[in-house]
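Below is just one:
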Amino acid sequence: MLIDINSFVGHWPFKRLHSNNCEGLLGRMNEYGVDLSLVTNIHGIFYKNTQSANEELMEEIRSKKAYKDRFMPFGIINPIYAGWKDDFKTCVEKFGMKAIRVFPGYHDYEIDDPNLIELTKMARDKDVAIVLTMRMVDVRQRSWMDLPKEWALKDYLPLLKAVPDARYMLMNLATGIALSPEEEALVKSSNVLFDTSGRHIVNFASVFKRFGKERFAFGTHFPILDYYTGLLRIESLRKEEATEADKALFCSGNVSRFLKL
């Protein structure tokens, strides 16, 4: 089985995307043999009310049986927007979402904001994961209206430290992953799952040996990144680097355990 843990539908305001709806994404999945995609609506990054994007996503997934069988929705919550607690409840209890994505940079709050910590504790108590994204697009080629700053892995660690018993998914390891021994120990002691889309996964064998093979799962960051690279990093592992059992963990085993699929 093959599960993509990091995919999107929707438009990016500053860049033309292709196959950026459920139909287009399903075509890529069929082309590369992907059984299930965990999908988020990009519009939630930019809408004033993120819940409108979550509702859009659910409407699209429910529009065809083929989508219901192949897509698992992730919601976006802005914990400094009025009504976010009601939005969280709807996402988890009505929509059945197993993870919530947050975008502190785009929604203009710090990683140690009390509301984000409260949201993370609520997610923990509901057995829902919190998804953090290190990079959406490369800021070196950004529009002047887009974010001027990217966060490194260590910038997310105050949240892990504040709520150590929550579950975290860290997507697109494309910015700095240098850590002090104490910071690396915090990551290794936390319940964390990384995807394979980021540029720091180029030497995948060394990265999963550093953090643990149980902490990685296939992810594409499509349609912002190309669809195949995240999978190629798994398929190109040599026999001395990973067994077939290891590859099965990366393809579906780790995320199935992590999200209790």
